[in-house]
């Protein structure tokens, strides 16, 4: 590691929330030389059983942090396939064969529980760089005294920290504590998720979609909410289906994940004309759970004093770019770099402001693009490059989110540019790089 900057010191970091983002930032801050304690409200017994995708912009940090990715038992994706709603014939294919060569890292599809366990093990393990993070379960955060940096928990205990990171998900308490009141509305679409056991599908004589190692979509070209998203995970043994339909056909806004499974009829009813091959998969679907979808307007800020937000607490987004987890990982990476010996000068408040300046614009662009892709799959990273298909149409060609913007992003360069401005210093690479992107890729919209 480079020699420490003057003023650098090890910090006592408190992380509220031990989900994907909380575990990631615990790893990043541990690697940066800090002591980390993670406070989780429950004991993980109800972890969500569904797939989570981790594109190259997330995978690169897993590698940088020396996470044992094999422990997450991922499927490495080979393509994105968009299929006709009724026939299942491919309409748009985005080939990922050269993905690793182009971007240096693969596109992983994890099962959420495996991904979480993989991150948790890395954060807590004795081996590898940094002090193992401490995990304290059954500690729901109730309040934070920002004068003293003290977290108060509902069980009556409290803990003092130099920096507090709110990684407490979409319903964040920390967000409220730092004074944010989200402007949000329920999405016009609903989502039910189900799992299909690949072996069982094959036993029923159904198509073995796991063979494609692809993220597959039915619908999405017609400006309708109806869309089926299939992602294979657990090495292909499990098929995870996200099924979207208009909220008028089933409203789950007031239901939470983890309740009793919904009956399979609720999953099938909205889809009278769906490709029979995939519909037969849904018919044997298990663990049918509603996913509440809320559209949040971007927040004006994500840090106050020595407290900041990360992941869904900071920028909850619709799932249509599959970037929620990746954005949480990128947030964690940004904090890890900013607080690392070569960059951190001891000024916590200024460092967190730089974090906000680095993270908000990029996460907000992805958030907006995720909402747009809900009704038009051509706006989805990857498919947004398939300009030669007959159905291709996007809102604004100049503003669409591209695979290049996501994966050519260099966070170190972004941080160096923003830090230089904060410290009133010139940024040496301004003719070639703008906000972490080669200048020709940088867009403001
Ligand atoms: C069903 C489902 C499928 C998804 N699929 C994808 C996908 O394919 N690709 C993708 O990129 N993203 C996906 N996401 C989104 C992705 O999981 C999130 O964007 C990502 O997990 C964000 O991580 P996070 O740490 O911010 O939030 P979470 O992972 O939700 O973690 C928040 C944690 O904080 C804890 N917590 C909450 N309140 C408190 C409190 N007061 N005190 C202490 N702890 C608290 C919670 O118990 C939880 O452990 C999916 C999400 C869901 C629910």
Automatic annotation (TrEMBL):
Stretches assigned to the FAD-binding domain: 163-367
Keyword Protease in record: no
Family: Belongs to the paxM FAD-dependent monooxygenase family.
Organism for this UniProt entry: Aureobasidium pullulans
Name of the featured protein: FAD-binding domain-containing protein
UniProt keyword annotations, A-Z: FAD, Flavoprotein, Monooxygenase, Oxidoreductase
Domain of life, source organism: Eukaryota
Any Pfam family hit: NAD_binding_8
